[in-house]
Amino acid sequence: MNPHLAELHPYPFEKLASLKQGVTPPANKPHIALSIGEPKHATPHFIQEALLRHLHGLTLYPTTKGLPELRQAIADWTCRRFGIPAGGVDAETEVLPVNGTREALFSLVQAVIDPVDKPIVIMPNPFYQIYEGAALLAGAEPYYLNTTAESGYLPDFDSVPEAIWQRCQLMFICSPGNPTGTVLTQADHLKLLALADKYDFVIASDECYTELYDDESNPPQGLLQSAYAVGNADFKRCVIFQSLSKRSNAPGLRSGFVAGDAEVLKNYFKYRTYHGCPMPVPTQHASIAAWNDEEHVKHNRQLYRDKFTAFIDILKDICDISRPPASFYIWLKTPISDTEFAQKLFAQQNITVLPGSYLSRDSGGINPGANHVRIALVAPIEECVDAARRIKEFLK
């Protein structure tokens, strides 16, 4: 067996299940799950209908590269969304459809990393655990870049030693962040682009939460947007990951894309032809419909805004709670250890939240996820309001 399998950590939800094992919550309070970032809003009908209209496509082997119409829809959306002139993203060479960002985040690392030079993959801490697992199985060493309250829950690139940059082959960024909802600015991107040029590494930007933001007039900046703004029109060393899971409430569709540096994608495409992961043709047609429509996304954002407003209004007088600029998470500081908080909240109020320490690693003498819990406001607004009231009672 691959020896690196032994290096993998249990997944956060395995740890959460163990934490709750043997605990009996009150039977008179229905369970409210706020632990998993799984959208619960309805998938728009027009996406479902597009899928059904093309079920005859199940008789066809899909190609790894996907339908030209899908790649063009993705390229056009990327240009519209990130202020890049029409045609500025080449649908033929700078876009690949993928079966959700999770499989792509993992597989890109396998294609990029050269394991012979003691490579490092830098990632924010806390982080989406796929980053770490992908690095380990590719034979790379993860380097955890703490994001703490002191740094505004953003990665401090200046804190990374030069010896680490010299071994870095790939860096993950996640903006808007999971679990913090914080957003990298163009200045942050430009600093990182300069470092990538100097030390020759690929920037993998996980942007699956960019379409869930609070201020309709101020959408989060994208990496390709920043690169294009400073003349990097071929997006050298830049790769972004996008998904319909959060944007369009279609996590079960397993549809997203990778876009950016044509040379990186050329080699990644070669990897994917062997990996065996083409997107089914009906899924591609449903995806075209989704990427071509923005009205359902605006409606989706408003649903989350309403939930944030209601949830925070109930709790703001009893705890330190802030509204993130983007995502659907609240990163809540806990008055006791995060694991004790999560276990007792379940035991007393039948609410499940995720301990922050399960999303991070000890680094530099601290675990930056400790004494926080991640609360995913994915349930219907009535459940979110009920949860906020129960959490308030629990905190009292």
UniProtKB/TrEMBL annotation:
GO MF annotations in UniProt: succinyldiaminopimelate transaminase activity
Key words of the record: Aminotransferase, Transferase
Domain Aminotransferase class I/classII large: 32-383
CDD domains registered for this protein in UniProt: AAT_like
Cofactor: pyridoxal 5'-phosphate
Tagged with keyword Transcription regulation: no
Catalytic EC class: transferase
Record EC number: 2.6.1.17
UniProt-recorded name of the protein: Succinyldiaminopimelate transaminase
Organism: Methylomonas aurea
